[in-house]
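Pasting as-is:
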Amino acid sequence: MTATRTLMVTGGAGFIGANFAHYWMTAHPEDTVIVYDALTYAGNRASLAALEPADNFHFIHADICDRERVVDCLKTHAVDTIVHFAAESHVDRSITGPDDFMRTNILGTHTLLEAARAVWLAGDGRPHRFHHVSTDEVYGSLAAGEAAFHEGHRYAPNSPYSASKAASDHLVRASHHTYGLQVTTSNCSNNYGPYHYPEKLIPLCLTNILRGRALPVYGDGSNIRDWLYVEDHCRGIDSVLESGRVGEVYNIGGNNEWNNLDIVRLLCDALDARFFADSQLAQRFPDAPAARGGAARDLVTFVPDRAGHDWRYAIDAGKAARELDYSPRETFESGIARTIDWYLDHTAWWQPLLQA
């Protein structure tokens, strides 16, 4: 790779992509970052507002399925690194409307790979990297006590979302082995942190508690997820780009399994404690249970389980630790505290999303 990079961050106005853009601009201020995003419902340009004035930051409003726009971006900005986040990612939406997932996650990834091949391999032959960001959901579901997902684990996707991501993983691998495209892939566990669209569990609970709304929990809440603070995920991708072997897959996880009901209760208790410690919160969020002398746990509402709901995910991140010297910096306690702080301090970011 060159001493400085020019990165094209697809889906960079989404949750993890926006956090990555912020992270990279801070960690590598000499590099250029181009965020390429179609601004679908989960893409929010407001997440990038602090970066927009920088001379080495650019935003392109375009679809990854538009090959001409992708090729133009790669050529015009002399991109040498693609970090591919762009994806439809909400499992519930994939169940009720799978077509968008097939288009974006499969066709979109194929379009990016073909554009990269045309510019980098058939074109000027520059040193390059195509990094594909995937999910632990491609591996399916684990039983209690079963060993965590490792990079060689059998693929067994159980939802249209995870099936579409599994297909994109295979396309990336094939582009390396067939054409020689310089690729890496990372499969991450559940992320949490700033700029998280409030349809996902943690931001949904935080914003619903502050508004006094019900906290829906699927089934009995026993489903288990491995949680990773989003900035730690960004650091993991940085490590892969810096030291990862071309053609390899690296699992990035938080070593932090929680069942959904315990997560919801933790958030309830943490917010109640914030209201107890800061009387001004009751004035800012008068509908929160704690503002009226109640308890957020009273908002917990059990709802019918969703179709194909995987029971447990867990990441074995040993390969990343051994080869990349990577490990998460945030504990779950510190990461949750930072997340709560962010949502309390950024109502102007999340409130318009709930009114849309």
